[in-house]
Structures are given as C-alpha cells and as structure tokens.
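Hello, quick one for you while I still have it in my head. A protein chain has come my way and I'm curious about its shape. I'm sending you its amino acid sequence along with the backbone structure tokens. I'd be grateful if you could look everything over and explain what you see. Here's the protein in full, and shout if anything looks odd to you:
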Amino acid sequence: MDMDMKTFDTFRKLIYDKSGITLGEGKEALVSARVGKRLRALGYENYKDYLQFLTGDGEDSETEFIEFLDVISTNVTSFFRENDHFVFMADFVRKMVEEGQNKVRIWCAASSSGEEPYTLAMTFLENAKGFRGECKILATDISTHILAKAKEGKYTEAKMNGVTPQLRAKYFTAQGTGSSKVYTVNDTLANMITFKRLNLSKPPFPMKGPFDLIFCRNVMIYFDNIVRKRLMDEFSRLLRPGGYLMVGHSESMAGMLCDMETVQPSVYVK
C-alpha cells in the first residue's frame, strides 16, 4: 500500500510529537513498510483507520502506540561498539576505586537489545579490582519490545563478536553448538542492571541521580536541536560534578554543552 505525502506528514508529526524522532523527507517507503506491519497485524485495510485508533484515548491505543514506535525505531548495537569509550571508562573506574568511592551509578540511556549495558557491566567489573561498594546500572529505552529482549540477555554466536573468549567464559553461559549456540548473561551481570522504559524526548526524568557516567550514543542523531538541547540540559542536571557523558562519534553537541566541557571527541565532563 503506497503512502501519500499527506499521510506520511501525519505519521511524521505524530512520531516527532511523541518520541522526538525526526524523519526527513524521502523516508516515505521506510515508514510505509513499517506501518504496514502493524496494519497487517491488526487487520486494518487503510492508514486512516489505523491513525484514528493510534491517536485514540483508550489504553489499547496507548499500548499500540508503543508497538508502533517499536517498528519505527531502529535498534543497531553490538558489544564493545565504539570501544574507545570503554577504554576511557576503564581508566575512570580504576580512578574511582583508587579514590575509595563505594557507590557507582551508571546510566545507559539508549540500551537497545542490551549489548551496551552488559558491556558497561563487564567493563566495570574487569577494572574495579578491590572495589567493595555497589555499582548499579540503569538501562533505558523507548521500546518495550527491545527492553524485554535485553532483559532476557540471550545472544547468538554472531552477536558475540567483540566479546573475548575469556569474557564469554566468565560472564555468559553457552548452550547449543554451531549456528544454534546461544549465550546467556549470568547473574553477576544481570543483577547489576535495571531495565526501564523511558522516552528521552520528554524530560524531566524521574531519576534523581547523580550519575557518575551517562552513555547516550547514536540516538541523538534522530533528534533535532530543540530535543537535543533539552536532553543535554537534563544530562547536566543528572551528572555529578566530575562525571562523564559519552555520545556517539557522529554526534556533535556544539553549542549545547551547558556546564559541560569537551574532554575528547564525543566525551564530555561536568
């Protein structure tokens, strides 16, 4: 079913108003294909009827909107992606331990299917030798479907690229063989992480902080400068003095830093 420009603009505005995600022109085919999945799942024959349901006031409409965002959202991630951030984090963790800090709080703001928060947990544990305190990681995402997948913590062999054999043996349980082999995160990692749904375009957030580290990588590319500035202000509020924010390598926060300073490309300190 082809989507005309007027219908596309209606979906585009709805997506922006509800999630902050900006869809540029030329995305008609992408939106049409992904919305088509929901039409087929629910038995709707046209976009107009689906839009009417999607924008309704009932609980069913609210639930469907979450499903709708799930199919619209792009979730691309991997273990130890953009690894220089984890190298930086390792140094920071060792410094916190040396200084005797016994309470560490980390926020993974766009957790996707879980590879990033589990990488954060592994990086902390591997560099916090002698740590006697508590480290908690908050992992948030707008997609309830992808959060459920992350919480399950199961990954195929292909998804484990970047995780060394030593880390696999230490933090995962493997089942099956060959292409059917699946790795499940162990309780050591799982118990460090709390998964919650959060819409990054709608600050202020309920967390009090302060956080020592905030990772928000490769998500602000989907936002315009208005949404980015609101988000950066909120990150600044929730970071402790001396805490760090990591963004994606392709994301520039020039002109939006509030009381943060650039340490190196894509790394900021409060």
Q: What stands out?
A: The beta strands are 103-108, 134-141, 154-156, 172-175, 182-185, 193-197, 211-216, 239-247, 261-264, 267-269. Residues 5-72 form a domain with the Chemotaxis Receptor Methyltransferase Cher; domain 1 fold (CATH 1.10.155.10). The longest helix spans residues 5-19.
